[in-house]
Specification:
The complex is a heterodimer of chains A (171) and B (753). Chain A folds into 2 domains: 77 residues, Ubiquitin-like (UB roll) (Roll), CATH 3.10.20; 83 residues, [2Fe-2S]-binding domain (DNA polymerase, domain 1, Orthogonal Bundle), CATH 1.10.150. Helices cover 39% and strands 16% of the residues of chain A. In chain A, β3 and β4 form a beta hairpin. The radius of gyration of chain A is 17 Å and the shape is globular. Chain A starts with a strand and ends with a helix. The chains are: A alpha+beta (171), B alpha+beta (753). The interface between A and B is large, with 56 and 55 residues. The structure holds FE2/S2 (inorganic) cluster (2 copies). One FE2/S2 (inorganic) cluster (FES) binds next to loops of chain A.
C-alpha cells in the first residue's frame, strides 16, 4: 500500500509525515514522530492509554487512522505543559499520587483536561463517568479523582482571578 | 499487643512525610520510557505464531515459504533453542513455555517467531508458516483435570508428597500439607461445624502495559536487553542460562514498568527475542498485543476449595481444615502450596490442617499475582467463618476477634508470630464509623481478613556522594509505585540531609550485584534496609575523613544531624563539618565517598489487613455496586503514607474486580474466549467509590524503622468481604467467584424457588 503524505498540526507545530492508509494515528505518533507519550495498552479502544485530542475532541488514537490527521489539530501529552510550566492537572497528579506506575497517566491527563474544559465544576460522579474510558490498574482511581477535583478547584480560581482583572481594567 | 515502644517512639525527620516522587514529572509529561518506548538502531520487529489448539501434537512446522519472503531476517522454532537446562526441570519448563517443543499445551502457546524489517512483513511471514497439528484431548478445569479419565498433560509428572508414590503419571503434581494438632479430635470437641466448597475462576493481573523488550546480541556473544520487568537481574540469569550465554555478558536494563503485580516476574518472549536477534544479527523489538498478554503471559490460578471449621458454643474454634486445588496452567507450580500456607494464617488454632493440590491443565503457565494464591484461600475460609458465626449467633467480627492470632501464636504454616497486626486491625474495624453506617434496601455489609508473608531476598545497593554534597542512590529493585521516593527519604533520614539532595536510580545489571525480583512486597523493605546500611557505611567514611581534615583520632568524631562533630573539650574550637564540607574536600582526603550494602534482609514482617465493604445488589439485573469500602492494614512503619494508601487502594480495587467481574472464559474447544479488555472487564472509574484507608503501625522488630512489606495484603480480603456483604444483602451465600450478574441472578432464583 502506498504511503500518504499527511500535513497536520501537533501541539501547535506544523508537522508532515507519510504513512500507509491502514496505519493508526497512535502508531504514527509513536513510531514515526517520536511522540511516545501516548501508550498502547490494548489497541482496541478499551483502555484509553492512547488518548489524544483531535480538533479538541477526545479520541483513542489507536482507533484513528494516521491519514485522518490531515488538516486537523492534534494535542498529545507532550503538549500539555506550556513553556516548561506544568498544567495544574499535571502538578496535582504528582501531588496527590494519582499515579503509581504511570502508564495510564498521559491518557488520564488528556481525558481530564477535556472534561474540565467542558465542565469546570464537575461532580464526583461526572468525573468518574468522564474518565470511565481510561483504565488504571494500580490506583483504584481514588487519588486520580481527588487530583482532578483539586485541579478543577484551582482552575476555577485562576479563571475567577482572570475575570476580576478584566473587570478591574474596564472600570 | 507487641507494640514495642523502642520502635514506635522513634523520632524521624523526613520518614513519614509526603514528598513528591522524583520520577513524577517524566511520567506526567510523557517523557518516561517504558518497555515499548525504546528503539535500537536497525531494529527488527519480532512477532509470534501461537497455537490455536488447547492441546496438540506438533507434527511439522514448515518455515520455508516464510523464509523466502523479502524482509524476513530470522525465524525461530524450538529447533533454534536447544535444551541446555541440564536436568533443571524448572528451567526446562520455562524453555518449553517460551517456545513449544513438539506439543502445544494451551491456546496461545508460542510455536514459532519471526523477525522482519517491519510489522507488516512479519505478519505476512507468520501467515506463510505452515504448522501441522494433531489435536489432543484437553482439560482446562482444575477439578476435571483430577478425574481418572482426564487427559494427562505430562507423562513425567508423578504426584509428589503422597505415600506410596503413584505408579502412573497424572495432572496432580504435588500435595503439600501444613498445620498442627489433631483435627479429628478438634472436630469431635466442636459444638457446631460448617463445611462448604467454593470455586474461583482464573484472573489476570491486568497491568496496562503489555510485555515489551528490545533484544540485541552481538556476534561476539555479548548482549543487551531492554525490558519491562520486575527483576532485571533474574531475567538476565534465566535468559543467559536458556541461551548458553555468560551471565555477565548480558546486560539487562529495566525500563519504567507499567504495572506488574507479579506478572512481570517471569520471562515470556524475552529469551526468544534474544534468540531472534542472535540469528538475525540485529536488534529485535517484541511487544505483546493485549490478546497475547491474556492468552500467553501468566494469569493467576483458578481454584476449587473445600473448607471445614468447627467451634464450641462460646465461639472458640476447635479445628479447621481445608483442601485447596489450584491449577498452575500447563506447568507445575507452587500455587496450591501458597494457598494452603496462607489459608488459616489469621487465626489462633489448636488443630489445623491445610492440604494443597497443585494441578496442571491446558491453560497458560500461572504467574504470581499480588499475594499469590492467598485471595482465593481467604475467600473460602472467610466465607466459612461468616457462616459459622451465623450458626453460633455471634457477630462475625466478634467471632474473628475471639480467634485472632496474636504474638506467640503458632501460625498454621509453621512459625511462631512476633508482634502482629491482625488483632489491632479487627479492633480498628470495631471502632470504625463505617460499621455503624445505615444500610438501605438491597444493601449488605461484609468484612474479611487477609494475610501475606512478605519477602526479603538478595539485595545490593550503592550510595555515592558527589563533591557538591548531593547523593546518588543506586538500587537494583524495580520501582513499581514510588519506591524511589521512599528510598530517597530513607537515605536523607540516615544522612541528615534534605530529601531533595538525594537522587535515586534503578541500576542496570552492569552496575550492581544481583538483586532478586521486586516481588513479595520487598522493594521498599529490602532496598530500604540496604540503603540504611549503605548510608551508615558512608557516614563511617565521612567520620574518618573529618578526622583526617581535623587531624584528630576518628574516635573523637561523631555524626549528628548531617554533620561531623568533634567531641571532647580539647576539640572545642573545631567547627562542625557538614556533609557538603566533607564531600567538597574529598578529592584531597582519599577520593570519592561511597557506601555499599550487599545483604539478604529476611523477616520482611508478616502483614495483616481487615476490610469492610458495603454493596448494593440490583435484583433485576444481578449487578452489584460497591458503595463503600474501607481498608485497615498494618504497615509496620509507613515511609511515605500516601504511597502506602495507594497500595491499599490499588489492591482493594483489583480484589473488587476479581470478586465481581473478572474471569477467563474458556470454550469447550479449550480456547480463551475473552482475551481483551472489552470482554475481560476490569473495574473502571465509575464502578468504584472512594476507598478509605487506615494505616496501622505495629513495628516490624526486624527492621531498624519497623517497616513491613505493604504492597500485597490488600488484595487478599476483598473477595471474601464482598462475598460476605453480598450474602448479607441477598440472604443467600455466594460460593463461586466472580460473583457476576448471571451467578447472582441464579442464586436469587434458587432463593425464590
Ligand atoms: S490503546 Fe487505544 S484504547 Fe487502548
Ligand atoms: S498508575 Fe499504573 S495503570 Fe494507572
Amino acid at each position: 500500500m502506498a504511503a500518504h503524505l499527511v500535513s497536520t498540526t501537533i501541539n501547535g507545530d506544523a508537522v508532515e509525515f507519510a504513512c500507509p492508509a491502514d496505519e493508526s494515528l497512535l502508531s504514527a505518533l509513536r513510531n514515526r514522530l517520536g511522540l511516545s507519550g501516548a501508550k498502547e495498552g490494548c489497541g482496541t479502544g478499551d483502555c484509553g492509554a492512547c488518548s489524544v485530542t483531535l480538533d479538541g475532541r477526545l479520541v483513542c488514537s489507536c482507533l484513528v487512522l494516521g491519514v485522518e490527521a490531515n488538516g486537523r489539530k492534534i494535542t498529545t501529552i507532550e503538549g500539555m505543559a506550556e513553556n516548561g510550566v506544568l498544567h495544574p492537572l499535571q502538578e496535582n497528579f504528582i501531588e496527590y499520587a494519582a499515579l503509581q506506575c504511570g502508564i495510564c497517566t498521559p491518557g488520564f491527563l488528556i481525558a481530564a483536561k477535556v472534561l474540565l474544559e467542558r465542565n469546570p465544576n464537575p461532580t464526583e460522579t461526572e468525573i468518574r463517568y468522564a474518565l470511565a474510558g481510561n483504565l488504571c490498574r494500580c490506583t483504584g482511581y481514588d487519588k486520580i479523582v481527588r487530583a482532578v477535583q483539586a485541579s478543577a478547584r484551582e482552575l476555577r480560581q485562576i479563571e475567577k482571578r482572570k475575570g476580576r482583572k478584566k473587570k478591574g481594567k474596564k472600570s | 499487643m507487641g507494640n514495642d515502644p523502642s520502635y514506635t517512639n522513634q523520632k524521624f525527620k523526613v520518614i513519614g512525610s509526603r514528598v513528591k516522587r522524583p520520577d513524577g514529572i517524566d511520567k506526567v509529561t510523557g517523557r518516561a520510557k517504558y518497555g515499548a518506548d525504546h528503539n535500537a538502531p536497525g531494529q527488527l520487529v519480532g512477532l509470534f505464531l501461537r497455537s490455536p489448539h488447547a492441546h496438540a501434537r506438533i507434527k511439522k512446522i514448515s518455515t520455508a515459504r516464510a523464509e523466502k519472503l523479502s524482509g524476513v531476517k530470522a525465524i525461530i522454532t524450538c529447533d533454534d533453542l536447544p535444551d541446555l537446562t541440564n536436568g533443571d526441570t524448572e528451567a526446562r519448563d520455562i524453555l518449553e513455555n517460551c517456545m513449544a517443543r513438539g506439543r502445544a499445551l494451551y491456546d496461545g502457546h508460542a510455536i514459532a517467531a519471526v523477525a522482519a524489517i517491519d510489522e507488516k512483513t512479519a505478519k505476512k511471514a507468520l501467515q506463510l508458516i505452515k504448522v501441522t497439528y494433531e489435536a489432543l484431548p484437553h482439560v482446562t478445569d482444575v477439578d476435571d483435570a483430577l478425574k481418572p479419565d482426564a487427559p494427562v498433560l505430562h507423562d513425567y509428572i508423578y504426584t509428589t508428597g503422597v505415600e506410596p508414590k503413584p505408579k502412573t503419571p497424572s495432572n496432580l503434581c504435588n500435595v503439600s500439607e501444613f498445620g498442627h494438632g489433631d483435627i479429628e479430635a478438634g472436630f469431635a470437641e466442636a459444638d457446631v461445624i460448617v463445611e462448604k466448597s467454593y470455586k474461583t475462576e482464573q484472573v489476570h493481573q491486568g497491568y496496562i502495559e503489555p510485555h515489551a523488550c528490545v533484544a540485541s546480541v552481538s556476534p561476539d556473544g555479548t548482549g543487551e536487553l531492554w525490558v519491562t520487568t520486575q527483576g532485571h537481574f533474574s531475567f538476565r540469569s534465566v535468559c543467559a542460562n536458556l541461551l548458553g550465554m555468560d551471565v555477565a555478558k548480558l546486560k539487562v536494563t529495566a525500563s519504567e514498568i507499567g504495572g506488574g503485580f507479579g506478572g512481570k516476574t517471569h520471562v515470556w518472549t524475552e529469551p526468544v527475542a534474544l534468540a531472534l536477534s542472535r540469528k538475525a544479527n540485529r536488534p529485535v523489538k517484541v511487544v505483546m498485543t493485549r490478546e497475547e498478554v491474556f492468552r500467553a503471559s501468566g494469569p493467576a490460578s483458578s481454584t476449587s476449595i473445600d473448607v471445614k471449621i468447627g467451634a464450641k458454643n462460646d465461639g472458640t474454634i476447635t479445628a479447621a481444615f481445608a483442601a485447596l486445588r489450584y491449577q498452575g496452567g500447563a506447568f507445575p507450580g507452587i500455587w496450591a502450596m501458597l494457598g494452603a500456607m496462607t489459608s488459616f494464617a489469621c487465626y489462633n488454632l489448636a488443630n489445623v490442617k491445610a492440604l494443597g493440590y497443585d494441578v496442571v491443565v491446558n491453560r497458560p503457565k500461572v504467574a504470581a499475582y499480588r499475594a499469590p494464591s492467598a485471595p482465593m484461600a481467604a475467600f473460602a475460609v472467610e466465607s466459612t467463618m461468616d457462616l459459622l458465626a451465623k450458626k453460633l449467633r455471634m457477630k462475625p467480627l466478634d467471632f474473628r476477634i475471639k480467634n485472632a492470632a496474636k504474638e506467640g501464636t503458632r501460625a498454621s504454616y509453621g512459625p511462631v508470630y512476633g508482634p502482629i497486626g491482625i488483632g489491632p486491625t479487627l479492633e480498628a474495624v470495631k471502632k470504625h464509623p463505617h460499621m455503624r453506617a445505615r444500610l438501605k434496601k438491597n444493601q449488605g455489609r461484609g468484612m474479611a481478613c487477609g494475610f501475606w508473608f512478605n519477602f526479603g531476598g538478595q539485595t545490593c545497593t550503592d550510595l555515592n556522594i558527589a563533591t557538591d554534597g548531593s547523593v546518588t542512590l543506586t538500587v537494583g529493585t524495580i520501582d513499581v509505585g514510588g519506591s524511589r521516593a521512599s528510598l530517597s527519604l530513607i537515605a536523607a533520614e540516615e544522612l541528615g540531609i534534605p530529601y531533595e539532595q538525594v537522587r535515586a536510580h534503578i541500576g542496570d545489571t552492569g552496575s550492581l550485584g544481583h538483586n532478586d525480583m521486586t516481588d513479595g512486597s520487598r522493594g521498599t523493605f529490602s532496598s530500604g534496609m540496604a540503603t540504611i546500611f549503605a548510608a551508615r557505611q558512608a557516614v563511617e567514611v565521612m567520620r574518618a575523613r573529618a578526622a583526617t581534615m581535623w587531624d584528630i583520632p576518628v574516635e573523637d568524631v561523631v555524626w549528628e544531624s548531617g554533620q561531623a562533630k568533634a567531641t571532647g573539650k580539647k576539640h572545642r574550637k573545631l567547627k562542625a563539618l557538614s556533609l557538603a564540607d566533607i564531600a567538597a574536600a574529598s578529592p584531597n582526603t582519599g577520593g570519592p565517598i561511597a557506601g555499599h550494602n550487599e545483604s539478604v534482609p529476611d523477616n520482611a514482617g508478616v502483614s495483616f489487613a481487615s476490610h469492610i465493604c458495603d454493596v448494593e445488589v440490583d435484583p433485576e439485573t444481578g449487578a452489584t455496586r460497591v458503595i463503600r469500602y474501607t481498608v485497615i492494614q498494618d504497615a509496620g512503619k509507613a515511609i511515605h503514607p500516601t504511597y502506602v494508601e495507594g497500595q491499599f487502594q490499588g489492591g482493594a480495587a483489583q480484589g473488587i474486580g476479581w470478586a465481581l467481574n473478572e474471569e477467563y472464559i474458556y470454550g469447550d474447544d479449550g480456547r480463551l474466549q475473552n482475551p481483551g479488555f472489552l470482554d475481560y472487564r476490569i473495574p473502571v472509574c465509575s464502578d468504584l467509590p472512594f476507598i478509605d484507608t487506615q494505616i496501622l503501625e505495629i513495628p516490624n522488630p526486624h527492621h531498624p524503622y519497623g517497616v513491613r512489606g505493604v504492597g500485597e495484603t490488600s488484595i487478599v480480603p476483598p473477595l471474601a468481604a464482598i462475598g460476605n456483604a453480598l450474602s448479607n444483602a441477598m440472604g443467600v451465600r455466594m460460593d463461586h467467584v466472580p460473583m457476576s450478574p448471571p451467578r447472582i441472578l441464579k442464586a436469587l432464583a434458587q432463593l425464590d424457588g
